[in-house]
Amino acid sequence: MPSIPLLLSLCVSAAPQDPAEVLARFTLAGKEAVVTRDDVALELAFHQRRREDGRAGCEHLVDTWLVRTEAAKAGVQPSRDEVQAFWQQLQQQIKAQGQDPMQMPIVKNSGEDALLADLTVTLAHERLVRKELELGKNERVTPEMLGLWLQDERLQHTIVTDPDKLPVGVAVRIDQTDIAIAELGTLLLRRSQPEDLDQMIQQVAWLRSLHALAAEHKVTIDAAEVDLELRARAEAARHDPRLGGIPFEQMLQAQGLTPQALKQSRVFVAQTLLKKVAAVLHPRSELLAALAADRNGVLERAGARRRLAVVYARATDTPNELIPRTFADAVAFLTKAKERLARETFANVARIESEDPGSKARGGDLGWFHATSKMLPAPVLAAAFALPRDGVSEPIQAEDGCYLIKVTDVEPEPSDEQIVERLREQHVDALMKQLLVDADLRRADGKPFEVRR
Predict the structure, then answer these.
(1) Which of 138, 158, 192 is the last residue of a domain?
(2) Vertex 211, ends 205 and 215: CA angle to 5°?
(3) CB count, 10 Å around CB of 193?
(4) Longest dimension (CA), the chain
(5) What's the number of domains the chain is made of?
(6) Res 108: pLDDT
(7) Can you give the C-alpha Rg of the chain in angstroms?
(8) Are residues 396 and 422 in the same domain?
(9) Are residues 382 and 241 in the same domain?
(10) Does any domain span residue 451?
(11) Does one domain contain both 431 and 394?
(12) Angle 194-216/416-439 helices, nearest 10 degrees?
């Protein structure tokens, strides 16, 4: 009997029992709309196609096609009764290893027919190897044997998995046979964890809501505008100190992308469209009027930023195993940490002492902030904007702990044009979130989604 990991890795290609099953409902242009399994599968395929999971999925689609094709030629397909008996054996084996087979994503996200179709491929693969090697009934088929059979079989065919060499709707081409990208999406959906499915459900609703809003305001974009956005992203990355000078193309490559692939991304194109919709809803004249009407208030939201670094100490009123410090203890801890700055750099102290995992490895660097940012507690920002450049605060108490803040850089005062651009970016961010809020996305059972975008 093949190993459990091998069996589960071959469970790859059959469709769920009901691809039209409704996973969520939302409001679209004043009417109820739905997100189905098909919608999510397709979104997963486009989202993951060039990433590690998507590339691996395409390879599995190839393997499955090869096994099914050769099994049909050799007449070694197992019967349904044989497959069901095999599934019962496999469940016992999985339970013996302390796992619940029914809780595995590939099982939870599949109908019975789909799961049995997968296991048919698994059994057929073993029989093909057994037949070719003329193994006896009691001789074991190893994972290495199965892998070598696939390796040899692949040499007999022309296989294309590179998306740049295939039409948009094709995931894999084997000889003259195309496997649709929808099949890749079905595979990815069946393997997905609940949080991954939630993300894609929200993405489907968000994309459809955006396109509906764009259509309402007669907003469209063309290839030239997408090119312009790509160049703007590359330029922003070139000046982003957090990237440490890594070229934009190299950053994309790490995600399995190229500039051309990014331009074809549904999400990237939608983000470009979102900016244009926001510009129509909030034209330049409106932003200039807002600046003239309340310059001080606008400057707090979009004026000169400060770059901050932190040494953070968690604290609570009642210490426990997870948070052992009281607020008084945290203040004392950070006071000692500040004393070390006479002989050590702030970055070094932060790397050693800070309890903020996100900034600790960067020497406490948090990035740039406006005075009214929602990313830090108000008392922390108030203290930071009262400090000079290179100034370090006293320990600051907030709800979640205590902060030692350093101002590592201060921006020059931006021009009115720069302020208008920042206001526009803030409207883009707000519109992105508002689209999902207005969609009132709910699960099929009526429970609302938590908006995470």
Answers:
(1) 192
(2) 145
(3) 11
(4) 87
(5) 3
(6) 72
(7) 28
(8) no
(9) no
(10) no
(11) no
(12) 110
User: Both 184 and 210 in a single domain?
Assistant: no
Residue 321 lies in a domain: yes
Same domain, 98 and 147: yes
One domain, residues 223 and 182: no
Regarding whether 16 and 131 lie in a shared domain, the answer is yes
State the pLDDT at residue 335. 97
What per-residue confidence (pLDDT) applies to 6? 36
CATH code assigned at 311: 3.10.50.40
Q: Is the domain of 214 the same as that of 188?
A: no
Distance separating alpha carbons of residues 67 and 16, to the nearest angstrom: 20
Residue 73 counted as domain residue: yes
Regions of the chain with pLDDT less than 70: 1-19, 111, 241-244, 451-453
pLDDT of residue 236: 84
**Segment 116-139, tens digit of pLDDT:** 888 899 999 999 999 999 998 889
pLDDT at residue 451 in the model? 64
Q: What is the pLDDT of residue 9?
A: 37
Domain encompassing residue 279: 205-294+416-443
Q: What per-residue confidence (pLDDT) applies to 171? A: 96
Burial class (CB in 10 A: 0-12, 13-18, 19+), 370: buried
Position 267 in a domain: yes
pLDDT at residue 286, as a whole number = 96
pLDDT digits (tens, 9 = 90+) for 8-21: 333 333 333 455 78
Give, rounded to a whole angstrom, the gap between the first and last alpha carbons of the chain: 45
Which pLDDT belongs to residue 3?
38
Answer with the one of 142, 171, 192 that is the final residue of a domain: 192
Q: Look at the block and give the residue holding tokens 């599934």.
A: 87
Instruction: Strand 22-28: give its sheet, edge to edge.
Output: 31-36, 22-28, 442-443
User: Cα separation of 422 and 282, whole Å?
Assistant: 12
